[in-house]
Design goal:
- By secondary structure, the protein is an alpha/beta fold.
- It has one domain: 3-Layer(aba) Sandwich (Rossmann fold), CATH 3.40.50.
- The chain contains 6 helices and 5 strands.
- Strands 2-1-3-4-5 form a 5-stranded parallel β-sheet, with helices on both faces.
- Strand 1, helix 1 and strand 2 form a beta-alpha-beta unit.
- The longest helix has 22 residues.
- The radius of gyration is 16 Å and the shape is globular.
- The protein binds flavin mononucleotide.
- Flavin mononucleotide binds next to helix 1.
């Protein structure tokens, strides 16, 4: 049997930033724990236009031609999803939000009839401040997107108080938590794909 496939999405416009470092720690632990094939996509390296709300995707295909052409089939085919992002103004970076909004194609399909169900997903989020509501907006958006994709919101890691690039390297607990998330997602992938 072939290894389960996970799509890992680095959502920050800052390369090798705090959220991508946590993502890489999770992926390292995941692939050490179990045979998993990883597709890692870095959102700022993609050309993704914002949704136009034209509703053309009700017919099954988006009218815009960009890197969503290769992302749509991946989102449909993979066995699991791992997204990492910073908090930007209590939400998600615009580049990642554009990817999410283009998921309107899946939303318009209705109750995810054609997508593999029970695919596990996880979300890693980083913010500079420490307020209790820091992650409310981004988590709600990711949960809503996962619903449209037929992905279960299996696990999350939320790290507060991290701002400058590389600051996460001084957060041993957060790095260990990311590795634990990676191992847990590997186990969930194994269970989901049988
Ligand atoms: C445009 C912008 C908006 C931000 N908004 C918030 C915010 O609302 N709350 C917060 O705690 N941090 C905010 N931050 C800080 C980032 O979340 C923080 O620097 C994070 O560690 C960046 O992660 P990254 O290195 O993965 O990009 C913002 C940063 C930028 C550049």
């Amino acid at each position: 049997m072939s290894a389960p496939v996970i799509l890992a999405i680095a959502g920050s416009p800052r390369r090798q930033g705090n959220s991508e470092t946590l993502l890489d720690a999770a992926l390292f632990a995941m692939t050490a724990a179990a045979p998993v094939t990883v597709h890692k996509l870095v959102v700022p390296e993609l050309h993704i236009l914002p949704c136009r709300a034209c509703d053309a995707c009700r017919s099954g295909r988006c009218v815009q031609r960009d890197d969503m052409d290769r992302l749509y089939p991946l989102l449909e085919a993979v066995d699991g999803l791992l997204v990492a992002s910073p908090v930007f103004f209590m939400g998600l970076p615009a580049q990642l939000k554009a990817v999410i909004d283009r998921g309107q194609l899946f939303w318009n399909r209705g109750p995810q009839a054609s997508l593999p169900l029970r695919r596990p997903g996880a979300f890693i989020a980083v913010g500079a401040t420490r307020g209790s509501k820091l992650f409310v907006g981004s988590v709600q958006t990711i949960r809503c997107w996962f619903d449209a994709l037929g992905v279960t919101y299996h696990r999350e890691l939320k790290v507060r108080g991290v701002d400058a690039r590389g600051a996460i390297l001084g957060e041993a607990q957060a790095l260990a938590d990311a590795q634990a998330l990676g191992r847990d997602l590997a186990a969930a992938l194994g269970a989901a794909t049988g």
